Amino acid sequence: MCVKIKRMKIKNADLLAIAVKPNGYPVGNAPEIAFSGRSNVGKSSLLNLITMRKKLARGSGNTGKTRTLNFFSVNNDTFRIVDLPGYGYAKLSKSVSASWGDMIEEYLTTREQLKGVALLVDIRHKPSAQDVQMYEFLKYHGLNGIIVATKADKVSRNELFKQKKLIRDTLGASIDDKIIPVSSLKKTGLDELYKALGETLFGEDNKSNNDNDIVEE
Question: Which residue among 18, 50, 103, 186 has the highest number of C-beta atoms inside a 10 angstrom radius?
Answer without folding.
Answer: 50
